[in-house]
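Lecture 7 notes: from sequence to structure.

We start with a single chain of 894 residues. Read the sequence below before looking at the structure.
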Amino acid sequence: MARPLLGAVGMVARGQLRRRWVVLVATGLLIGLAGAAVGSGAALIRRTATSYDRLERATLVPDLQITMTSNPDLAFRAAAVVPGVSGVWVTRALVARVENRPDVRYIGALEGHPVGSDPGAYTPVLVAGRFYDPAAREAVLDERAASAYGVHVGDLMPLRMLTQSDYQHFDTGFDAPGGPAVSIRITGLVRMAGLALNQTPLLLAPAAAAALPSVGMLVAIRLVPGPHAVSRADAAVARAAAVAGRDRRDPDAAEFPVLDVTHPATDSDPRVAATRRVLVTGLVVFVVAVAITGLATGAAAFARQHDLRWAEQRIEAVLGLPPAARVAARVLAALPAALLAGLVAAAGPLVTGGLGPIGPLAAYEPHPGYAPDVTASVVTGLVTGAMVVLLAGWSAARAGRGGVAARGAAPRGGRDRRVGSSGGSPVADGWVLGDGRRAAWGGPGPAWPGPAWLWVGVRFAVGSRVSPLIRRPALFTAAAAVATLVAAATVGQGVTRLVHEPDRYGWSFDLYVNDVRPEIVTALRADPWISAVSEAAVSTVQVGAGCALGTVGSVQDGAPEAAVPTGPAPQTAPPDLTGGGTPMAPTAAPVVPRRLASTSPGELSVQAASSAATGSRTAGCAQFPAYAFTAASGHVGWTMLAGRLVAGPGEVVVGTRAASTLRVGVGDTVDLAAGPSGGGQPLRLKVVGVGLGPAISGERLGANLLLDPSALTNVQQTAPLHEAFVRAADGVPVSRLVADLGARYEVGGREPPEEVTNLGGIGGLPGLLQVVLGLLAAGAVAHTVLRDWRRRAADVAVLRVLGATPPTIGAIAVTAAAVAALVAVLIGVPVGLGVGRLIWWEIANAVGVGTDVAFPTRLLLALPVTAAALAIVVAGVPTVRRRWRLPNPRNRVG
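Now the structure, written as tokens:
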């Protein structure tokens, strides 16, 4: 019995393949191309999402980075006490002003190790040129900093070095740097990860750095992996710092910690994480959209092929071939198509292996060039081939059940439900073509005013009752394509609005001047080119009752950083300036944080990665930069998302990220620890607003506070920096104002925060995604129109027999096509807006900006018209319309 059955299965499969090989090959190629797009997208997602992590591994980012003032003996003692060390690098840190520029810019540098040596920690990846000659006056530069400074391989970079005294007086300002002038040859461009990326992008040859003054020491340590390795190292460094803290120190360096410890390997750059989330989300949306569209299209193609030949399965059933054998024969015939689809899909990740990470993350790829993802290729090929087999089996079983069981006898009510016949059609349900002005049921029932072709076309499009989308794969595909297009457009509109509207990220000014003094503010106020000037004091504050512990840890991993208490302080209870509540618990003096300074990509962060720059915390204690504005003329302030600005010393405005970290909102209260000088006192302030302000101290966007000047004086943890925020007068080009002021002062232009820059760095990806999804949506709508009308071919023939004229059939075709397209749009638009809203909420939270949605109004207005017009064009193709207008012998059944 088995051998004859297998022979029958093989015979049917050969017949299917002989008659339908062109259709099967085309279907397999279509599904294979969709699989190739999905596999390529998955490989690109993997390479993009892992680029920064792979760069950290390639550059041997240290587990511990210890910075201190220029004290080599202390640096080596600190490195010696750390247990479980696998690699250590002790070097000097330098700071220089970049010369021959229209503005004032500073850059941090490290004394590099000899080429060929293996310190086991911090080895940048060379991407252009060569490494420096250890005996020459040469250096390598991070490629992002090189782009910011306009430096290329082989250029001379003129520098004026800062002395130790210059560095320690950054907050109060100094005249020209007191160090020597030197020109350094840039021999190569490198890629760096970790804290050195923004702080010390210049790596000097040992001979070049030996004769230059340093401003500090850096110890980079790699630990042997193990449980609690980092916490044990932190404890050892804290003990060493406690001993060193008893030594006599330079009074000018008193505000710096004795040993400042960070964890670059675990405290990954949060800005990179936010950018990665945005890019990966966009790619995932694209991959899902292509996968759904390809799957639905393949299912519809196989369903149409098997539905049109249901009579063949009926004959096979009469001849004794069981359902499983009939399905097996058609699956066997589809195996060549599955093989073709698998090969085409597997080629996708191999062909696109030359594509590196997209957007700003391309700058973190440690190994640029062709890198095929073999795993993605194999998995994509196998899954795509398996999906072809499953779709062939599903559609064959579906057609077999409908063609034999349901078609062998009339169902209840005596109505024939053949596919391609009038199941649920206007004709079978009793529609009649009356006088051309009314359409009514054949029996007693309602009459609908208007031309018959209009209502017949509507019923052709929607059926006698609304069917679930899953039962109409063509309509499901079109609705899904429209939804993904609208979602991508919603996200793209939000990104465009954020990048082009500085107020949305808290920059309501045109430029700022660093380290201002009263005479500078007076001169700015009198300048006719300036319409508004606000002076701001910038310091750090510690928030929460836990600040009495005297340490502040990283917000990324929750583990406290090694820090040294500065000693006991008077225990005082804070006055409650909010008008109610209970006093805060007594607090000890906190650790003195590093000094803040403005940064830009490739520019030195003077505090060497202050924990306050990102907003850091321990249990119950968080440290943030704090601003206090004083308007000199006009007003330049924050962008408020909720509540209002500060109106007195008992109020505070928190940034978006600070509000999330502290879990506070408008109406709550926060406790701020007293400053370490002994002259301040702790305060309890009421949160009156949540907003965004300028992030010029190296902090993440929204990780700062806005206080009243008198309140900041009580709780500031460092001597404040004084900045002036300036808005140009109407008609004055900002570039001219920057050039004019930059010749006299240290000026910073209005540059978006790195989170926004990275988001804008995705370039045309949203637009490209919308184009691709728009083409998919157009193809899905066209396929829906053709698919639905092919299913109605028998009904059209019946209408012709009943006397419908060719113009009437054409009007029905156009109406049904337009209605089907509008149904897909009506379903897809709300779903797309909902999905786009969720995606934008995720992106906005990652960046730290407002989560309100920017709707793609133009697309929403144009989409219904475009979809209906496209459907009408497809329905009006002459070769197709002739088939609809004339009775067709192939539509005969029975």
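The chain has 24 helices and 24 strands. Keep this in mind for problem set 3.
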